[in-house]
Each structure stands twice: as C-alpha cells, then as structure tokens.
Specification:
This protein is an alpha/beta fold. The protein has three domains: about 160 residues, Rossmann fold (3-Layer(aba) Sandwich), CATH 3.40.50.300; about 180 residues, P-loop containing nucleotide triphosphate hydrolases (Rossmann fold, 3-Layer(aba) Sandwich), CATH 3.40.50; about 80 residues, 2-Layer Sandwich (GMP Synthetase, Chain A, domain 3), CATH 3.30.300.20. Helices cover about 30% and strands about 20% of the residues. It has a six-stranded mixed sheet, sandwiched between helices. The protein has a six-stranded mixed sheet with strand order 8-9-7-10-11-12, sandwiched between helices. Strand 4, helix 3 and strand 5 form a beta-alpha-beta unit. It is elongated. The N and C termini lie far apart (about 55 Å). The C terminus is likely disordered.
Amino acid sequence: MKKLPQVLVMGRPNVGKSTFINRILGKAKAITFDTPGVTRDLATFDTDWNGIPYTLVDSGGVFFSKSDDIYLQNKVESLVKNAMEKAQRILFLTDSRDGVHPMDMAIAEMLRPYKDKVILAVNKIDDPSKGQEIGEYYRLSLGTPMPLSSVHGSGIGDILDEVVAGFVVVPLDQKQVRYQIALVGRPNVGKSSLVNAIVNEDRMLVDNVAGTTRDAVDVSFVHQDNEFVFIDTAGMRKKARVEDGVEYYSVLRSTQAVYRADLVVVVLEPEPFLTVQDKRIIQIVIESKKNMLIFVNKWDLTQKTDEARQILIRKAKLSMPPLEYFPFIFGSALEHIHIGRLFEKIPHIIEESQRRISTPQLNQFIEEVIKRNPPPAKYGERIKILYATQAETNPPMFIFFVNKPDVIEKDYTRFVEKRLREYFQAFEGVPLQIFFRGRKKKEPGHSS
C-alpha cells in the first residue's frame, strides 16, 4: 500500500480540533474535554473524502509559546514541528468567538514557511450569516480564511474539497490485511515508547511521569504490504486511583480499545513483574475473549539471559494458568530489541483465531483422546461425549454434544481445552470457547 498523504490539524487548545476530527470520522475517536492540553499525542486516522484517501493527524493542544500550565508542552511542540515538515496539507483551526488570539499569531508565524500547504479555518461560526466577521483573520497572512462549524457540520465539505485538492486517488488493495492492535498495561511500562519503536518515529509523547498518554491513540504502520493500526492506550490504574474526569475518560477509552482490537499486546516490565494490577488487566483481556500476547519491555535493564526469561514465564504461568496458551516476547522499546517479533507473532495469532477444525477431525479427536479420558462418572451414571463441531471462529467456539451436559465439571472443560490445543498444535495466543450440550430431543408427535 502506498503511503497516504498526511493532513495535519493544528491550532491552539480548545479551538475545536477534536470535535472537527470526530465530525469527519463520524465517531468519537478524539477526546473532547474543556481542559486545555487534553490531547497530547499525534493521533492518526485513515479516512477519505469523495473517494480520495488521506491520513488525518491530530496535533494536540499546541502552544507555540512557553507555558508552565501544560505539562510536557515543549515535547508536544517538538512532535508537531516534525509533523509540519511531513504533512502535505496543514489545516489551521482558529476560534471565531475569541477573534485573532496572540497564540494564533504565534502559530501563524511558525506556519508561514509552509504557507502554500496551509488552509486557514475559522471554527465555531454556528450562524452562517456571521461569516463576514472572519475578515480580521486575513491579518494572519495565510490566505483566505474559511468559515466552519464543527459542531453543526457547516463549511466542512468546502474545507475538505480544499484539503484533498491535488491528492491522487489511491486504489485500495483488497488483498491487504488490516490489523488493529491495542497496547495496554499499567502506567509507565513503556507503551508509548513501544509504539515509537514500532513505527521508528516519534509519534507518542514519552516521559517518566505516569499518565503522559491520555487518549487511546491510533497509529497506522505498513509492514510487508499489511497495515497495522497500533492503539496506544492510557495506563490502566486501579479505579480508586482514577481521580479526575480526563483520566476516567482515558481509562474508559483504554477498555474500549481492547474490545475493538483484533489482538491485544499486554505490556509488562521485568521489575516489578506481573503485579496485581497487571493481573487485573490481563484478566480483562481474557474475559473479553481477545487474542493476546505479552510483551515484557525494558529487557535491556536486566540480565537478558534465557534462564531469567524462563523463570519469569514459569512465574507467570503458575500465577495465572491461562497464560500457558499465550506467547511472551522479551524486548526493549528503547533499544529496539525484538520489535520485529511482533510483526511475526501478530499475523500468526490472528490467523490461528480464524482457523477452523472440521467435524470429522473433531470426531477423530474424540475417538483418540476423549474416549481414552472420559469425564468422570456422576451419580453412578456414565457420561458420554458423542460428537463435536466448531460453531464459530475468532474466537473459536467448540460445542461437544453429551448425554449429561449438566454434570460436566470446569476441570474437565480445562482438560479438553488443553488436549484440543495439543492435538491440533493450534491456537497459540487465541482464547477458546468450549461448551457441552445435550442432543436435541425429538418434538412430541413427530416420528423419524
């Protein structure tokens, strides 16, 4: 797939950038909140206008003047300046209710070298008859200002026509696979650093202070003709420690990211390893029936021996037995150690989740494995597993038909799952659903 042209949306805080982006995408992807500086990463969204695809880049609540009020603002500005260089179009949003603000003037000064690719939009003009009031924005010397209301949608079509003018229509490759991958974990385990290492570019803010990432941010990356959308999420803390509205909303977005992902990468660190909160996060993923792998980050800070790795894996499986079926990758975002293994494992796991076992193969499994290890008799009655079928994929669902389904214990369900995986040498990183049901009874009055 050819790289899509990038359209950078920028402006000072609270001029309506996130609302504008959500309007274009038709869904709430960017956080909208009244506190300045809520959006702090370069979020990317692939979209199109009239069949012309492009990548929308949300710049964050940018100040181009020094401020002690917004944490990490200098780092935000550095990311945005880099994005300004790479963008094919820059959409500069201002706020009609404030008039030309001193920060608008400062941003315009920074944009002047890129004037040919800048589109100036004046947002929050909810009454089209007041469009003539935008005349003062000519003072920014960035061309003709265009009226816009992100909330009501007026003016968006005209602006998008300008945005995509001259862009080439890129034929969509129907064979290309698109994987959505959520990265989750405690605060400060290195999720954002891992995203930056994966795309080999600074897209996400990285800092030692927990809580740097606030939204669930999509970052697209093409590897060997397949598109990976990595969803960097806010660190998931205990509910009792989620103090303000922004953080509550961020954690909610992190949970939603798990549900929409094809696969979840749980990021841990070797010390402390598998904390109580780590286990809670892993349990959320398991209960969501999502494909999963574990990435143990900051491996460069340890002994990096195979023995140390095996000790941690054994500890994890003893602490959480379901982890026996999910792969571990030990690496380092900072040193780019074993990042490539993610691109090997992710497609493999997702393909395994779509694998289908035929009914004859399952019946052979019953003959060779289950009949040699039948469920224990209950109340003196022998339990027989008659046949099985795979009802669904992603996640795979197997239904075993038995004469006494109500007396099957959970231990036996776990036994069947383990043997099923071993017998078919399949489903690494994939959750399985196994159910036991009785045969359908004939309806009264009907004969065969």
